[in-house]
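Now read the record:
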Amino acid sequence: MTDGTPDSLIPYDEIVQEALRAVVGRVLGQVEAMGGELPGTHHFYITFKTDAPGVSIPKHLKERFPDEMTIVIQNKFWDLKVEDASFSVGLSFNQMPAKLDIPFSAITAFVDPAVDFGLQFQAVSPHSEPEPHDDAENDSPELDGEARVVSDDGSNVVTVDFGRKK
């Protein structure tokens, strides 16, 4: 039996990924608002794609981590700045200070082990393009904006069932 579910023309996966990445931004923004002090025993592991658009890290780190890197925001970090689409932070690597600029779209994982909380994200490829899709079936010119579903009793009601397949 084949799956008869049509492909969605609404990018739900992308919308959910973006919303979950906003959680990371909000958490980091709260830490920034508290003067860069983490409350209690909270600390974060943040994994990101080093080759994603907008990522800026020192050359020696890029050479060491050409694909993906995990940073720890815990005791020794500074200059945490959170923007709408990215954050920057200062960290030490082998006693060498470094500034990292990381867009939220580059993040693939966020974990706060102090409270057993974690999020994983789909990787964003720097060369990815949206997949082409067919035109929507209701975009035909003959409908002229008058698309309606009329039920048997004559009312203009559309029933949508979001139930699970069995």
